[in-house]
Amino acid sequence: MIDPFTGPPDLETGSRLTIDLGALQSNWKHLASCAGEAECAAVVKADAYGIGIRPAVRALWQAGARTFFVALPFEARAVREELPDAAIYVLGGLAPGSSPILAEIKAHPVLGSLPEIDEWELFAKENGIAGEAAIHVDTGMNRLGLSFAETQDVAKRYAGGNLAFRPSLIMSHLACGEDADHPLTEHQIESFGNVAADFPGVPASLANSAGTLQGGAFVFDLCRPGIALYGGHPLGGDNPLKPVVLFDARVIQVREVDEGETVGYGATETARRPSRVAVVSAGYADGFMRAAGSSDDRRGADAIVAGKRCPLIGRVSMDLIAVDVTDLAPDAVRRGDFVTLIGDGITIDEVGARANTIGYEILTGLGSRFARIYIG
Q1: How far is CA 242 from CA 207, 228, 337, 350, in A?
Q2: Annotated binding-site residue? 157
Q3: Is 265 a catalytic residue?
C-alpha cells in the first residue's frame, strides 16, 4: 500500500518530489503583504495544486491563513479534518442534494446560479441554520456566476431581509487578471465594485494570484491567491516568490550515441555529433509532459545535471527521458545519480512554456509515482 503523503519508497521508484513547506509559508506571507489590510486566503484545490492538501493547509495555517478555497466537497472534508476552525469555501458549485454534506463539513458553498441559491435557501430554512455562503457574480468570465440582473434581484432580497441564508462573501473571478490594462480587466474591476456596493456589510473578493500581486484596485476585502502560493508567477518577469517543488529523477543509464543516430520514439531528434545521453527514470506518466520533448526542429525542456543545464534529446516517453550530457566531463554523471527537471532555476512556468502550456498544468499534473519528501 502506497502512502499518499510519502509515495513509494525511494528505491521502488525512479523520481523524487521534494516539497518545501517553508517556501509555501513564505509565499503566503509575501502575498499577505501585497493584500495590505485585506485578508489573504489560500486556494488549495486540486490537492493543493499537487503538493498535498493536508500538509499544505497545516503549513498555511501556521503561517497565518484562516480562509481556504477548494473546488469540491471531498477537498473541503480533508481541510476540515486538519483545521477545525478554518473558514472553507467550495468553489465548484452546489451539486443537487449536496447541501447536507457541506453543512456536516461546516463548509460554505459558493452559489453561482439561482437554482443553487433556491436549494441552499430551502435547506437553511428547513434546518434552521444561518447557512453562510458566498455569492458568485459573473463580471465577464462567462463561466460560473449570477448575471447582473440576477444579482440585482438577490441584492434586493438581501436588503429587504428576505434571504433565508447569510451571505458571508460576494465574489467574482478575473478572466485576464495578469493584464491590468486589458479592457475586460478594467470592466470587471468597475463592475464588481458596483455589485459589491449592493451588499453592504458583506466582504468582497475579486483578486486571484495576479490581482493580489498587483494590489491596488484589485484588492477588496479578501484575496484568493492560488498558483502564486506554490511558486508560479502569473505576471512574468522577476519572480518574488520561492519555488516550492523540486522534481528529481534517477539516471538509469549513460550511453553513447553516434553522430547521425536518432534518440527516442519517432526518431524526432538526430545527434549532430558523437554524444553521451543520460536516460532518466521519469516521463509523462509522472506529469512531465510529452510536449516538453525536443526534435530536430525545436528545443525542448532542460534538466540540471551535475549543476549544469543540459537539453533533453528526443521525445519524452511514458517512463523515460533522455538528456544530452555531452558537454559535461565524462565522469560528471553516472548510473544512480539524480538530475533535476523542476527546480534549481528551472521553474514550473519555464517547463510549461517549453511544453506549450502553463505552469498550473505542470504542477497539478505531477503524478503519484514520486517518493515525496517534505521539508521546511
Answers
A1: 20, 9, 25, 14
A2: no
A3: yes
